[in-house]
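Narrative of accomplishments. A recurring question from our advisory board has been how the design workflow behaves on a single, concrete structure rather than in aggregate. To address it, we present the structure tokens for one chain from the evaluation set, followed by the sequence designed for it. No filtering or post-editing was applied between the two.
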């Protein structure tokens, strides 16, 4: 799942992958060999005009609208990177680069009370059809992500942490001003996603989105179901099928300064890592940056001519979540026992350690282990330790009992029988489910493991169709709003339905300061509290690989971007050497 500029890195403490805390792995090949020392400039080279490439994706999607809870998918985020109006990107050095196709400069804080931010649009910024980006587009995005039924009736945004805090948006010429409500003081105001879909396209499709909240919802549904014909990026979609492929051609109306050289770029979904590696070895594709890597796949790459690869800690972090809406998991004590029984170190040893030898267990939901703001509140609780005796004592003290066959029963006499769900194509998550099943058998809990087709993950999460589930969040170097999206009682991305008023108060405080250090301190307080709720068990910052044909230049991995290697798509090209 993709987070909208909210996540788990923090303060650029790991600004290069070579830092020990960032978990740098092995680097092979000539093209990527200097990524250790020059992560933002490695594999650079002169490009020739022309060329067609195919880039593999290892996961699917079912909707085109990233605003919505069921469309909040990291794979569609990557598939749309060539045209979506992101505020900008962090590069592998941790430096933020504002979107050159839309903005003439970085956002400017022009007032602190109330917080007021000014955006300067490029004079030529447009939607790929000659229609300029205007204040209405900012307002459309606000309504879509507000969570306010008076603005968008029936909308289910992935996050409301931005939209719910906007008081007004005005525009004059090329300047757009966003004024926030009293009490909003996010230390990460500069990175808020202020654009998504074009207002004029919604209007052309017949939706009076500005005046009718029901039609605003209809417009959001339209964008979810319709392949985008518009673009603010270096490319525009020529043809596409949801969950299968996106084919790009250059966007002649792009207002960015970077020259595009490629004639065609295709993002194609492949079922499983083995098929991606085989396709790369056979020359069917030019590269991939999958969300997981195995020792077998690396062995195959080592013997492949004209292919470069690198392994490193990526932006994704794996975790196990519990659905608090399903009895008996609404009992915090049971959740604490379950998370205590799960052995995280064993999961890591069986899934990732053979790929990256120095990999560490993740002990914070918001900060990487190498961050200056990292504090380990998790280990002392025993959660993730695999300590069955400790877990059983937690249950005994709460009145749980076992029958002659060691089946666990609640204090009310109900057997504890649960399911555990995972993405079908992700071998590491299947192993996680199987190991958790074995751990929980030690508590007398029967676990039914059920796989999820990749394209259905968003739907399963949004509908809460799970008891326990293993999945990942894709992150970037921000943290202020992440807790709200993950755990706020009203968040559509709070998939397990946790409702904790005290935690809500702590989350609200994170966005109550413009001071970054103070915001981090408040974020850690929220982390400590959610650990007490036994809701989410972090596993690891997932080691990932980028694999690239040697004929490509300016392609490299990027731990700081949700889009990984595709973050600088406009710069990609065929080598002129």
């Amino acid at each position: 799942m993709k987070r909208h500029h909210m996540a788990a890195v923090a303060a650029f403490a790991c600004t290069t992958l070579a830092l020990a805390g960032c978990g740098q792995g092995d680097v092979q090949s000539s093209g990527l060999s200097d990524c250790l020392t020059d992560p933002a400039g490695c594999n650079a080279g002169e490009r020739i005009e022309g060329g067609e490439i195919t880039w593999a994706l290892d996961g699917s999607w079912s909707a085109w609208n990233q605003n919505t809870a069921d469309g909040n998918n990291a794979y569609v985020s990557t598939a749309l990177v060539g045209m979506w109006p992101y505020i900008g990107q962090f590069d592998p050095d941790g430096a933020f680069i504002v979107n050159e196709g839309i903005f003439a400069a970085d956002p400017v804080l022009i007032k602190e009370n109330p917080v007021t931010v000014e955006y300067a649009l490029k004079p030529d910024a447009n939607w790929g059809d000659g229609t300029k980006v205007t204040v209405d587009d900012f307002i459309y995005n606000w309504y879509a992500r507000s969570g306010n039924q008076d603005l968008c009736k029936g909308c289910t945004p992935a996050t409301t942490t931005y939209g719910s805090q906007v008081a007004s948006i005005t525009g004059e010429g090329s300047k757009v001003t966003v004024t926030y409500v009293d009490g909003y003081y996010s230390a990460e105001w500069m990175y808020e996603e202020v654009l998504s879909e074009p207002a004029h396209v919604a209007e052309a499709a017949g939706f009076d989105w500005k005046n009718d909240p029901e039609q605003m919802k209809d417009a959001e549904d339209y964008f979810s179901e319709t392949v985008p014909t518009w673009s603010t990026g270096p490319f525009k979609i020529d043809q596409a099928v949801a969950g299968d492929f996106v084919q790009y051609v250059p966007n002649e109306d792009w207002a960015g300064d970077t020259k595009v050289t490629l004639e065609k770029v295709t993002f194609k979904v492949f079922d499983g890592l083995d098929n991606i590696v085989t396709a790369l070895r056979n020359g069917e594709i030019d590269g991939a940056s999958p969300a997981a890597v195995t020792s077998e796949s690396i062995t195959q790459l080592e013997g492949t001519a004209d292919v470069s690869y690198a392994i490193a800690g990526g932006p994704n972090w794996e975790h196990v979540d519990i659905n608090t809406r399903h009895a008996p998991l609404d009992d915090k004590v049971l959740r604490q026992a379950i998370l205590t029984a799960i052995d995280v170190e064993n999961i890591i040893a069986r899934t990732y350690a053979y790929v990256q030898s120095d990999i560490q267990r993740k002990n914070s939901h918001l900060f990487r282990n190498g961050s200056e703001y990292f504090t380990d509140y998790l280990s002392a609780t025993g959660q993730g330790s695999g300590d069955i005796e400790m877990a059983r004592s937690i249950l005994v003290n709460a009145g749980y009992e076992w029958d002659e066959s060691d089946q666990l029963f609640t204090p009310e006499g109900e057997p504890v029988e649960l399911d555990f769900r995972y993405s079908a194509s992700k071998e590491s998550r299947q192993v996680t489910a199987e190991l958790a099943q074995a751990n929980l058998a030690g508590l007398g809990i029967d676990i039914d493991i059920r796989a999820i087709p990749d394209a259905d993950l968003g739907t399963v999460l949004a509908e809460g169709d799970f008891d326990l589930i293993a999945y990942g969040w894709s992150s970037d170097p921000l943290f202020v709003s992440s807790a709200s999206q993950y755990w706020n009682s009203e968040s559509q991305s709070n998939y397990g339905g946790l409702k904790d008023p005290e935690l809500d108060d702590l989350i609200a405080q994170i966005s109550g300061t413009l001071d970054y250090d103070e915001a981090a301190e408040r974020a850690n307080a929220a982390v400590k509290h959610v650990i007490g709720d036994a809701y989410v068990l972090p596993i690891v910052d997932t080691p990932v690989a980028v694999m690239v044909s040697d004929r490509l230049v300016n392609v490299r991995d990027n731990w700081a971007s949700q889009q990984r290697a595709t973050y600088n798509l406009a710069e990609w090209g065929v080598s002129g050497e």
